[in-house]
Each structure stands twice: as structure tokens, then as C-alpha cells.
Design brief:
This protein is α/β, with parallel strands linked by helices. The chain has nine helices and 14 strands.
Length: 341
């Protein structure tokens, strides 16, 4: 017995991730697409054998739709996700959960009021490599975690978005004020919280617009690079760098330094997880390559979302976890950057 799902927003994230993964899930009968630009919705409905909702209300009021993915741009999440929850739908919201902690808390209130499930798409938790690293850390096979470093950088969202141009909404401060920190950085913050079972509490950050320009050739309004020094609640120290100007190969790597050895994650294509022990011995795992903008593989997010609905489980990424990561991003950029003084 299956059910229908709805998707709000028909950009690249829907086309390459949400729609194909819903289509492949055996519990999903049909996808209903909504976009303010109806032609985009029609195009994806044709591609994935779904149908179109002409108005948002048509999607929200449709009794056959049990769950909705909110793939709208960042400034609309608190509106669409809240409305969908209060309309009795379970919701998978793209990251970041909202443009500010204040807006994210609005969503959390709607979640509590609705009694429906809300999951946030921090998809790095779902890779086999990160899950294996988590298992090793939980068992304390290498002793306690001492320090860490994590990086996420690629050539920028202008090559990924629907328009394939620097007119992308990712460069617009009104629509995506966190810049690279909200696009890539928040994934790694969530990942560090998840892997270390800890929370970033204190930090010092440099951020800047080093190279990206808008359609007029002027520097973009948001940061394209962030470098941060981090301290967690449990006293671990680490560094994080996020970039839209890594003009070679994408870098999505993390290193965890423990008492008895080092865990290297996504440093090598063929051995995605490497354990280097203090005695010089090495263990390598070949699990799966990381998903990149050029290599779209199943994230496992949709399957996990559907599973938590069918089996009435707690979502694997909760709103409170997403808000914890968002708080770190706000702190990184300084609250004044967000215009929420």
C-alpha cells in the first residue's frame, strides 16, 4: 500500500535528488509537483510520471498526499514547511531549515502543533562512510576524539542551479544570506555534531567574498569562503573551511584525530575511509564514493524519511538538530550579517 508525495519547488535539488529517489521508493505511488513557475513543474511531472498542482493550496489540501518535500529557496522554508505541517503533511525540508533561528523556531512550533514528522535534509549523515566512521567513534576503537578538521568546497552553485548562471539565488542576500556557509558549511557542522555526538559551542571565524561576481560583474553580496576555528561542548578543538572557489576537484573531506589513531574520510577516491593507527598500521575501507554535483547517486534521505513515516520512527535528522547547526552558522557570520539585530 503506497501513498502520494508532493514536492514544493522544482529546481535542481528536486530533479536530481528528491524526484528520482521518491520515484525509486516502493511505497510512493505518485509525485505531485508544485512550482511558482508552472512550466518547471510540468517538465518534472512529464519526466517522472507525476502530476502538477497549479496552486500551493491544491497540493496542501490534497488528501492523497501524505508527505511533502520543501525544496523551495531558503527564504521560503519557514512559510512552506510550516503551512505543510499545519495542513497535516509530514515534511522533509531542505537545508538550511530556515534563514534564521527565529524562522526555524516558527517551523518547530508548527511541527509540535501539527504532531506530524519533520525531517531536515542533512544528507551527509547517510553516507555509508560517515556511518562507519560514527560506529568506530561510538565504540571508542581509537580512544577519545581530540581534534578534527573538515572541509567542503567546490566551484560554486552557479554550475549546479537551474539557470546555470551567476544569476543564481544562492548569490542573493535576501534569499540566501549565509552564502557558502548555508549551502555547504551547515552540512559539515551537522556532520561534526553527528560524528562526535557533541556540539560546537565556541568559534572564531573569517569569512569573505574573494572571487564570485554577480550578473553585473560586482562582488556577490554573500560570502564565498569561510574559515573557522571551533571548540565543542566536550572540549574538542577543530577547524572548518567552506568554499565556492575550489576551482579544481570538489573537496568533501574530514579528518578526526583520536588518542590511538586518525580517521581520514573522503581523502581518496578508492579508499573512502582510512584508519591510521599510532603503531603505523593502516586499515582502509572501500564503501562508496561521495555524491558530488557531477556524480548524482542515491542519498538514502528519501528512503529514511519514508521509513520514519511508515514505521512511526523519530526522523534521523530532527528540527532541534537542524536548529543547533543553524545557530552555529549564525554565530560564524555574526548576527548583523543577517540583518536581524
Amino acid at each position: 500500500m503506497g501513498f502520494n508525495v508532493g514536492i514544493i519547488g522544482c529546481g535542481s535539488i528536486t530533479r536530481y535528488r528528491h524526484a528520482p529517489e521518491y520515484k525509486a521508493n516502493p511505497f510512493v505511488d505518485q509525485i505531485v509537483f508544485y512550482d511558482r513557475n508552472i512550466e518547471r513543474a510540468q517538465s518534472l511531472a512529464a519526466e517522472f510520471g507525476g502530476r502538477v498542482a497549479e496552486k500551493l493550496e491544491d497540493l496542501l489540501m490534497d488528501p492523497t498526499i501524505v508527505a511533502i518535500s520543501d525544496c523551495s529557496s531558503n527564504e521560503a522554508h519557514h512559510i512552506y514547511t510550516s503551512k505543510a505541517l499545519l495542513s497535516g503533511k509530514h515534511v522533509l525540508c531542505e537545508k538550511p531549515i530556515a534563514m534564521s533561528v527565529k524562522h526555524a523556531e516558527e517551523i518547530a512550533r508548527a511541527e509540535r502543533k501539527s504532531g506530524k514528522k519533520l525531517m531536515v535534509d542533512h544528507n551527509q549523515r547517510f553516507t555509508k562512510v560517515h556511518q562507519k566512521a560514527k560506529e568506530i567513534l561510538e565504540k571508542k576503537e581509537l580512544g577519545e576524539v581530540l581534534t578534527f578538521k573538515t572541509t567542503f568546497g567546490h566551484q560554486g552553485p552557479e554550475g549546479w542551479g537551474v539557470t546555470k548562471s551567476n544569476a543564481t539565488w544562492f548569490f542573493n542576500k535576501e534569499r540566501s544570506p549565509f552564502g557558502v556557509a548555508g549551502d555547504l558549511g551547515i552540512h559539515k557542522i551537522d556532520l561534526i555534531h553527528y560524528l562526535l555526538d557533541d556540539q560546537i559551542e565556541d568559534l572564531h571565524t573569517f569569512h569573505g567574498t574573494l572571487d564570485k561576481v554577480d550578473v553585473r560583474g560586482k562582488p556577490i553580496e554573500v560570502c564565498d569562503n569561510v574559515v573557522s576555528i571551533l571548540k565543542t561542548r566536550k572540549g574538542r578543538l577543530g577547524t572548518a573551511s567552506f568554499s565556492w572557489t575550489y576551482y579544481g576537484k570538489e573537496d568533501n573531506s574530514t579528518t578526526i584525530y583520536c588518542q590511538k589513531g586518525i580517521i581520514k574520510i573522503y581523502h581518496q577516491d578508492d579508499s573512502q575511509l582510512i584508519i591510521e593507527m599510532n603503531d603505523g598500521s593502516k586499515i582502509t575501507y572501500e564503501l562508496e564514493s561521495i555524491q558530488t554535483n557531477d556524480n548524482q547517486t542515491s542519498t538514502g534521505v528519501i528512503d529514511a524519511f519514508i521509513d520514519c513515516i511508515i514505521n512511526d520512527k523519530l526522523p534521523p535528522v530532527t528540527s532541534s538538530e537542524a536548529i543547533a547547526s543553524l545557530k552555529v552558522v549564525e554565530k560564524m557570520l555574526g548576527i548583523e550579517v543577517l540583518g536581524t539585530k
